[in-house]
Amino acid sequence: MMTSKIIPVDPFDLVIFGITGDLARRKLIPVLYYRFIDGQIPKSSRIIGLARSAFSTQQFRNQAREALKQAVSEKHFDPALAKRFVSCLHYIKNDVNSDEDWGELQKMLKDSDNKVLAFYLSVAPVLFSPIVKQLGRLNLAKNSRLVVEKPFGHDLASARKLKSQIGAVYNEHAIYRIDHYLGKETVQNLMALRFANKLFEPLWNTNHVDHIQITAAETLGVEGRGEYYDNIGAMRDMVQNHLLQLLCLTAMEPPYKFDADAMRDEKLKVLRALQPLTGEEALRKTVRGQYLAAPGAPGYLEESHNKDSQTETFVALKAQINSWRWAGTPFYLRTGKRLRSQVAEIVITFRSTPHSIFGEIDTPIRPNALVIRLQPDEGLNLFIMTKDPGPGGFRLRETPLDMTFAGNSGDDWRPPDAYERLIMDIIRGNQTLFMRDDEVEAAWEWIDPIMMAWKNSGVPPESYDSYSSGPAGAVELIVRDNRRWRDIVA
Ligand code: NAD
User: Which residues fall within 8 angstroms of residue 195, CB to CB, at 6 or more apart?
Assistant: First the structure.
């Protein structure tokens, strides 16, 4: 069995705005429970939930226990531990837009001896600024940390506006912008793979890498959140943050140190080196799609309640990084809803061997590929060519060197949720896995002209069948470079 060392954290007060919402119920409360059962929540710590509904702390604790039963696996749900955990939870009724509703929170925080105070904004982005203003007005922000969920802005202008509103109260070193992909075990393993091994670094450049694919495919559609999603779309929801962050971590130069600013400086350089995609070129190198209905599953236009919607539920694009390391190695990014399988992965395809000594054999030599899988079955697979065993001739086959974490980590291993690490990093004061404001802006700077080109073209998104691999245009995007997408298979 693998033993993991739990690094203690200081006692904390974690104030969560929007505690009755979907994210808090499905993720934040369950992941805090997991950290509790692993002994990482110090005794006097408090999790203080706020929302508009009027109920007591006891009612809230009962609700939280029910939410845990739903979200936590049977194996890990222990009623006695759950009871102890919910005793750390407190509830305060608070409408953030009302000046009167803040007294109780002030009272609770006034005499706290807990060393760390963090405010987690698990609410709609329109509430970010009003909450921060109140925290400033009431002098609660002092020495605290602020956690902001995505999306951070809608475009460059709105991201800058939000930055200046939040910046009036918090300085950058106290702001934790969540991109939960960065908390995923495999993403951190990508750092270990690249920077704790000598093997890959000499190959990690355009001389040896033919191209890189980054895919995040979902099987679900917008599931009743159509009206909300219609103002966002896949580019803003997935590409601007998750996919570009994965691209940065794959492409960046080795930072001098695994620390927040060193890492983020290197990621920023990648974003700034992205070849801009504007006008005609943006249309040629990007594809957007919208899913159609399938038996028992409505199409996007029905779900969004907007029959003229041009919001994309799928994006594929070809990006180029203008650097010595990557010039000549395209990055193909793809994300979409209602696709064939639930898959998130990075595929590094190496260049082919220069010459085959094997002549006419049954199996062609396929280029080596390193698949870094975030979902499902987090792990790494390195595909290499080997000889088919046995004396019956010489045939080659593609064999994965499999490092699926679950299989290699013992029966008791539970894949940690990305939010577990991220929340504990907030308490520790470690910003390495959070996006800095200049990264967010650089990402919008690259995204905005593409969205502008789409808008100006007036061309609607291409339809695609639900549970397919996406629109035909996405296949065409890569086939015209004599390459093909890796199949979307879980
Ligand atoms: P939600 O709509 O389910 O919940 C919003 C919460 O805000 C509720 O608790 C509600 O009571 C509270 N609220 C609304 N108006 C309020 C007011 N005036 N005063 C006080 N509280 C108020 O939203 P969600 O899905 O939980 O998302 C929360 C945030 O997390 C959003 O920024 C979203 O973009 C982000 N996010 C959510 C998910 C997810 O899986 N749900 C994933 C990534 C990011």
Answer: 201, 254, 258
